[in-house]
Amino acid sequence: GEDVEQSLFLSVREGDSSVINCTYTDSSSTYLYWYKQEPGAGLQLLTYIFSNMDMKQDQRLTVLLNKKDKHLSLRIADTQTGDSAIYFCAETEGGGADGLTFGKGTHLIIQP
Amino acid sequence: DGGITQSPKYLFRKEGQNVTLSCEQNLNHDAMYWYRQDPGQGLRLIYYSQIVNDFQKGDIAEGYSVSREKKESFPLTVTSAQKNPTAFYLCASTELGQGLWGANVLTFGAGSRLTVL
After folding, report:
1. If we measure between CA atoms, which residue out of A63, A68, A35 comes closest to residue A50?
2. With helix as H, strand as E and coil as C, how does chain B read?
3. Which among B100, B102, B106 is the nearest to A100, CB-wise?
4. Which of the residues A30, A31, A106 would you substitute to probe the B interface, choosing the one with the greatest number of B C-beta atoms within 10 Å?
5. Sign of CA dihedral B59, B55, A87, B6
6. Mind listing the pLDDT tens digit for each residue in B72-99?
7. Cα–Cα–Cα angle for B108, B43, B71, rounded to 5 degrees
8. Distance between CA atoms of residues A75 and A90, nearest Å
9. Å from B18 to nearest chain A CA?
10. Residues of B in Cβ contact (< 8 Å) with A104
């Protein structure tokens, strides 16, 4: 079945850029998503990208997709303490009506 | 404001007891989903429903049951057959195909934490 892999932890200094990486195995993935989870809360959608796109930018967030290598990244510019959370990469084939496949999440730790 | 409400937020259960987690949405979304989250394990799909009175098993359906009698409600029952039920349970919903480029964007509730004593 599909598999989505992420590093478990990333530590960055406040004000630096954070780059969270994700790899996936399903070559039929159509949509790729980034969600954010704060402690004890549900998941909040950050952004998503269609598989025929290479890049999507939304304010401080930049998503890069390398479809050939099945690699997705999320760059957060000017990282702030409020960005401290778990970030989940997810993918779906087709429209995704049967749910998304999630990675295990990357804990983003902000150093002062 | 529209959203998804999960209750209770915290629940304790003795071994051998069934427990039902509530999920209600007022977003008029077609599809609803239940995920289970364990530390370091990400989210795993338990059950989902795309239409009233119909639902499908996800990757880890054993020991769980659901119903979808109303569009806005998708309760999850954790039965005594579930061997390791202690986890954080997340409910989500989506309006099918209404995201950009036809994507399904899931909206999540705040979660219910179940602890088996």
Report:
1. A63
2. CCCEEEECCEEEECCCCCEEEEEEECCCCCEEEEEEEECCCEEEEEEEEEECCEEEECCCCCCEEECCCECCECCEEECCCCCCCCEEEEEEEECCCCCHHHCCCCEECCCEEEEEC
3. B106
4. A31
5. negative
6. 999 999 999 998 999 999 999 998 877 7
7. 40
8. 16
9. 24
10. 40-42
Lowest mean pLDDT: which of A25-29, A55-59, B11-15, B87-91? Answer: A25-29
3-state DSSP assignment of residue A28: coil
CA A24 to CA B37: how far, in whole Å?
19
Residues in B closer than 8 angstroms to A88, CB to CB, are 42-43
Q: How far apart are CA B2 and CA A98, in angstroms?
A: 23
**CA–CA gap between residue B7 and residue B9 (Å, rounded):** 5
Query: What does the block give as tokens for B3?
Result: 């959203």
Q: What residues does B50 pair with on adjacent strands?
A: none
- Residue of B5, B37, B45 to mutate, testing the A interface (most A Cβ within 10 Å of its Cβ): B37
Q: B104, A92: Cβ pair inside 8 Å?
A: yes
Q: List the single residue in B with minimal CA-CA distance to A53.
A: B101
